Predict the 3D structure of the following.
Amino acid sequence: MPHGQDSPHDCGGNIVPQKLLLADSRGLTVLQSSKGFMEKYEKLVSAGYRPEAAEVNMVVWWKNDRMKDEIKVLLPTLYFRYSL
């Protein structure tokens, strides 16, 4: 389920998290959003959409030159519902 932290309010009084974290059924964080995604997320929330569910769409392994080991990156599909 999506949850945020350190949540400011947008001009409509809605809470807009600075990061969107997704947790598994045990409550462990499995995904942390990027800054670019949060800009898109804020636009959706401002337009009246709310996150409803998420699922893993793809899993990729990533490594750059400064890293010793690869890391697993989850690419999710997020579902939003419009609410008045």
Observations:
- The longest strand covers residues 49-62.
